[in-house]
Recover the amino acids of this structure.
């Protein structure tokens, strides 16, 4: 009976993610995902000559003879992403018939939508591990089910929802690890090995998963600084083995990334000019991404008045909400049974945000321009908001 509300949130999440799934036209990156997932190549399209529509869409035709090795060859030579999601999408789309001569857009988007639904019980489990509270877990699952940001990512034929699942799994391992350190217990070997595997799979899904790993390292460093007098070096050796195993599982992709990286592909996030807008834009872009994690009013409409009004209302609501979240987190930090989980996840989120702004302002690569990149810490934000709402619920 206690899992019945979770089932409701899952059903709601299915409806919101699969409803009108193929209604929106695909954009450039979705086309690339579809082409490479089919095992095709853009080289099928002739260049420097007049071509027909059929020639242009040739890469979107299912390839009955394509094998995973061909997919890997085309992906690693023509794109700059690791292959795990593309391999999964390749096998997934074989379950669905094509639409005429071309791959089904619904089929391509249904895999991210399905993975997005899995994130609902995923954050439920993470919340339960962190706070041992069914109320926190249920509220977190409910927020994930209706999160506009989560729905947005789930309705694109891209790899971000798979990345979110790896973030949830890795954070679960982090929470368990720090709970064991807190209680002066050795980290179980199963968690150690599982954490390494999850981190390696995360890196095989998206290179920006490295930001998740760095933010986890920041959270671990903060725990060590605050508790170093209460823990012995011997308790940390399995954490060190996780770091070493993750490094090995990640470094294998460095030569691939080095060989496939194209400076032209990241020009849109480069910020070489130094003016007031390069300082302010990342702040506003981050605010927009944070707001949509929780709520969204119609801002992409033809009527400017509706768009501007919606934007102002969302901003005002966010300004009203921030002090409530701040007070709630402070209260959670004062409660002995929730202090550890709040500190871990709060430190992780702050570490991730600091990395985004550090890379943006000091390296000149404006990661805040890509709202999708916030997937690296999105689940932790949802869990923290769920914990604060649970506290308010209990107080009332």
């Amino acid at each position: 009976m206690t899992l019945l509300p979770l089932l409701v949130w899952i059903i709601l999440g299915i409806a919101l993610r699969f409803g009108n799934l193929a209604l929106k036209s695909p954009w450039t990156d979705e086309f690339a995902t579809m082409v490479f997932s089919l095992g095709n190549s853009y080289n099928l399209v002739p260049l420097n000559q007049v071509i027909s529509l059929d020639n242009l869409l040739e890469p979107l035709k299912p390839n009955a003879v394509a094998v995973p090795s061909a997919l890997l060859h085309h992906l690693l030579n023509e794109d700059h992403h690791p292959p795990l999601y593309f391999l999964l999408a390749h096998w997934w789309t074989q379950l669905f018939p094509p639409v005429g001569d071309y791959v089904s857009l619904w089929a391509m988007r249904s895999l991210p939508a399905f993975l997005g639904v899995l994130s609902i019980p995923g954050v439920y489990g993470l919340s339960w591990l962190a706070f041992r509270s069914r109320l926190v877990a249920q509220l977190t699952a409910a927020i994930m089910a209706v999160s506009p940001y989560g729905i947005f990512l789930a309705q694109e034929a891209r790899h971000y929802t798979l990345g979110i699942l790896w973030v949830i799994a890795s954070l679960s391992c982090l929470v368990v690890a720090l709970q064991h350190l807190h209680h002066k217990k050795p980290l179980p070997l199963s968690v150690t090995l599982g954490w390494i595997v999850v981190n390696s799979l995360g890196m095989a899904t998206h290179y920006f998963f490295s930001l998740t790993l760095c933010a986890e390292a920041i959270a671990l460093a903060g725990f060590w600084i605050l508790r170093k007098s209460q823990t012995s070096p011997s308790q940390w050796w399995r954490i060190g083995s996780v770091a070493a195993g993750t490094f090995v599982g990640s470094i294998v992709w460095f030569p691939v990334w080095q060989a496939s990286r194209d400076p032209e592909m990241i020009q849109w996030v480069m910020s070489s000019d130094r003016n007031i807008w390069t300082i302010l834009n990342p702040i506003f872009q981050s605010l927009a991404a944070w707001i949509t994690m929780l709520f969204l009013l119609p801002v992409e409409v033809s009527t400017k008045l509706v768009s501007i009004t919606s934007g102002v209302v969302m901003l005002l609501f966010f300004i009203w909400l921030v002090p409530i979240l701040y007070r709630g987190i402070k209260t959670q930090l004062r409660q002995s049974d929730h202090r550890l989980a709040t500190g871990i996840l709060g430190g992780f989120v702050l570490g991730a945000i600091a990395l985004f702004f550090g890379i943006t302002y000091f390296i000149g690569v404006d990661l805040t321009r890509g709202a999708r990149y916030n997937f690296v810490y999105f689940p932790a934000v949802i869990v923290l908001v769920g914990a604060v709402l649970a506290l308010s619920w209990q107080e009332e």
